[in-house]
C-alpha cells in the first residue's frame, strides 16, 4: 500500500522580519514569509524572475532565540510540510490558506546577497515529534553511488 508524502523544501529570502508570538502554554511560534523566485520568459523574450510568496510557521522551544536572526532579506532554507488552516471570516465566508509548518530551518545569509560568515550556514530543527514510518528503500538504479574519499584519488586520475 502506497502512503502519501507531504514534504516541502524551499530556499528563498524573507519578505519581512519574522513575527514572534506565544501559545497559551508559552510555546514560542515564529511566523514569516519567504519569496522564492521562478525564472519566467518575458514578453520581449528575455528572462526575469517571478516571485512566489510562501507563508511559513515554526513551532519550537528555540524559536525565541532564532527570531532575532530572521530579518527581511535574509536567505533561508526550510524543510517541512504543507498545512491548511480553515476558518470563517467575520462576514461568515469560509476562508483557508496554505502554509509550510517548518521542521528544519537553515540560515544561509546575513542579508541581501551576503553569505553568513563566508559560507557558514546555521541549521535549526523543531523538537516536535515526527511520526515514524517504515524506511523507504530506493530501487538499485536510483541509489546514489558511494563517494570515494580523497585517499582513493591519484594525481593522474584528475582530468584537468
How is this structure best described in words?
The protein has a single domain (8-129), classed as OB fold (Dihydrolipoamide Acetyltransferase, E2P). The longest helix has 5 residues, at 63-67. The protein has 160 residues and is mainly beta. A five-stranded mixed β-barrel has the order 1-3-4-6-5. The chain has one helix at 63-67; strands at 8-14, 19-22, 28-41, 47-59, 75-88, 94-107, 109-111, 114-115, 122-125. β7 (109-111) and β8 (114-115) form a beta hairpin. The protein has one helix and nine strands, in the order ββββαβββββ. It starts with 7 loop residues before the first strand and ends in a 35-residue tail after the last strand.
In a few lines, what is going on in this structure?
By secondary structure, the protein is mainly beta. It has one helix and nine strands, in the order E-E-E-E-H-E-E-E-E-E.
Please state the second-level CATH architecture. Beta Barrel
Task: Let me know the average pLDDT.
Answer: 76
String of helices and strands:
EEEEHEEEEE
Contiguous runs where pLDDT drops below 50 for at least 5 residues? 113-121, 128-160
CATH topology: OB fold (Dihydrolipoamide Acetyltransferase, E2P)
CA-based gyration radius:
20 Å
Give the neighbour order of strands across the main sheet: 1-3-4-6-5
* SS-based class: mainly beta
The CATH homologous superfamily is termed Nucleic acid-binding proteins
Instruction: Outline the biggest β-sheet.
Output: 5 strands, mixed, barrel
Beta-strand content: over 45%
Number of helices: 1
Helix content: under 10%
- What's the CATH first level? Mainly Beta
Number of strands: 9
- The first-to-last residue Cα distance is 49 Å
Shape: globular
Number of domains: 1
Amino acid at each position: 500500500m502506497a502512503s502519501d508524502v507531504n514534504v516541502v523544501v524551499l530556499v528563498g529570502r524573507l519578505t519581512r522580519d519574522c513575527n514572534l508570538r506565544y501559545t497559551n502554554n508559552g510555546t514560542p511560534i515564529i511566523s514569516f514569509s519567504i519569496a522564492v523566485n521562478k525564472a519566467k520568459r518575458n514578453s520581449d523574450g528575455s528572462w526575469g524572475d517571478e516571485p512566489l510568496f510562501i507563508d511559513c510557521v515554526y513551532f519550537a522551544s528555540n524559536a525565541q532565540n532564532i527570531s532575532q536572526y530572521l530579518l527581511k532579506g535574509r536567505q533561508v532554507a526550510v524543510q517541512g510540510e504543507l498545512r491548511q488552516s480553515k476558518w470563517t471570516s467575520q462576514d461568515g465566508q469560509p476562508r483557508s490558506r496554505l502554509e509550510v509548518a517548518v521542521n528544519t530551518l537553515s540560515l544561509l545569509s546575513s542579508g541581501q546577497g551576503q553569505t553568513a560568515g563566508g559560507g557558514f550556514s546555521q541549521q535549526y530543527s523543531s523538537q516536535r515529534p515526527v511520526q515514524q514510518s517504515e524506511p523507504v528503500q530506493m530501487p538499485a538504479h536510483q541509489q546514489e553511488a558511494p563517494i570515494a574519499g580523497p585517499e582513493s584519488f591519484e594525481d593522474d586520475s584528475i582530468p584537468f
